[in-house]
Amino acid sequence: MTGFSIETISLNSPPPAEPESRLHNWPVVYTLDDGHEIYVGETLSAIKRLRQHRDSETKNHLHAVRVVLHERFNKSAALDLESFLIRLFAGDGKYRLLNRNHGIVDADYHDRAVRRGDFEEIFSTLRDQGLFERSIPEIEQSDLFKLSPFKTLTPEQALAVEDVLRSLGATWDAGPGVPRSIVVEGDPGTGKTIVAVYLMKLLQDLATVTDEEMAEDIDPDGRFAEFFTPSFRANVSTGDVGLVVPQQSLRESIRRVFGQTKQLSPDMVVDPFAVGAGDKHYSVLIVDEVHRLNHRANQPSARQNTRFREINERLFGADAPDLTQLDWIIAKSDTQVLLVDPEQSVRPADLPRSVLDEVISRSGAVGHHHTLASQLRLRAGDGYIPHVRALLQGRATAPAEVGEYEFLMFSDVSAMHRRIKELDAVHGLARLAAGFAWPWASKEDKSAYDIHLDGCSLRWNSKDTDWVNAPKSLHEVGSIHTLQGYDLNYAGVIIGPDLRYDEESGEVKFDRSNYFDKRGKQNNPSRGIVYSDEDIREYVLNIYRVLMTRGIRGTFVYVCDPALRRYFSRFIPDAEGIPAPADLTCNEAVGTEYHALHNDSHQRRN
Questions:
Q1: Within this chain, do residues 138 and 190 fall inside the same structural domain, yes or no?
Q2: The CATH number of the domain where 554 resides is what?
Q3: Where does the record place the region Disordered (predicted)?
Q4: Contact 181, 522 (CB under 8 A)
Q5: Cα(574)–Cα(572) distance, rounded to whole angstroms?
Q6: Contact between 480 and 188 (Cβ < 8 Å)
Q7: What's the domain range around 64?
Q8: Which of 344, 372, 400 is where one domain is finished?
Q9: DSSP tag of 581
Q10: Is the dihedral of CA 385, 388, 393, 397 positive or negative?
Q11: Structure pTM?
């Protein structure tokens, strides 16, 4: 395609001086790099802007300049391309991105679809010049991209960020005794983690922005430009800002992203024990997945039980049974931003629903409760999650309208696994998942298999962290503890015998004898709590609701209990015409067919 060109110049050399040059008066996008760090910008006058960068202490080491000129660009198209390239550089990981985050928001404009078609050719040219290492599909599958602080916010997410910033301003102006917990509540797929990561970067940018950068780099029309002021900077820079992530796997993934991003560092991402035991007091703590914080319950190890008691004694003078990790966070920070979905609690050790309801109510009473309502992860529309909820509760009345979303029921787990392998070869990130309805024999015996269904033998996840990207993950089955907080393209969910259906009563019931998460059904003697089957059932239903909302493009379901399978089949289309692998065991089929498909797909994508 013609219409664009990329001019390569040096920041240390005088740029073209011809007054008719489009470098003087035309909307352009440019990159500055030194081989290790990169900055992406847009301007109406490249000559003027590059002179400013040459004289800047923060940019003058970025000597290599590439200016993207397009004969049909307007200001909106330039801003859109700038946003597009920033997201891809952040996800590629070759360079450390130096941009600040002051308002990458999705915005439409005339001929956007046409200009967007040019963007991929511009990317390919820059990749040919060595600025990118990976293709766009490969970048978009990476955690660096999915968890990037440079994600384009939807209008609803951007409004939530604005509301949180205004709530922060209100807490700074408030006197003592005013609740300082700000709550963002939303269902799976509404973007809570995106908002949390975006806020971390934005707050760090607000705290460290210089007067020179406010004058030169901050677009006054940007979504969050109103907060880039000396007074806001003075408030947000009074102390440390941290991001608390209770789940180990998700925490490690976000740490890797922060290591690639200017103004952020991996040690800003902490677990609740590090907050409680550390000496640092925070100005702001952002807490993702608040529902996964713990109350006083049996911890994974004796050492953590001891630490829980020691932290309570250190912070509050005594170990009281009603103290929780949320109390630690409130004690160790001036203000808290809490991202929560009460229906994603999956173990009795998670914060009780009463605690979550109280903090939500308290924040709402002072105007600090904000909601994310639009479902964005899944291409199934807003009706899918309520349908899954009703289905699992035994209250479904009709199939859901899911458009082109692949929501299918399998009667053979080998056929489902084969379909997952085929889709992974084409789209990537297609995985099997299951409830904890089988013992984890392979944890101790690496040659053992855990799940045996329809002649197919499978193992649980062999990694606790970053399992979805591990080489063996396509051969294995992920549990809730490896998948909560992650996106997949396709999820094949095995609903185990821990759930069964009573056809007389029309109820979905929990079978404790087939539930093997020991800490998922433990009583709490220290607090005198005994969990009934009905109590544990709610956690198990939450687990399956989370697993059935991981797949962006599709969700496949296999049900063990025959009666539950008959009930589900009334509301989920049957996956007809998908043959099971022939003449091979399930695991041999994984090894042979996957590699052939993967190699072919890899060649096509590149």
A1: no
A2: 3.40.50
A3: 1-20
A4: no
A5: 6
A6: no
A7: 4-146
A8: 372
A9: P
A10: positive
A11: 0.87
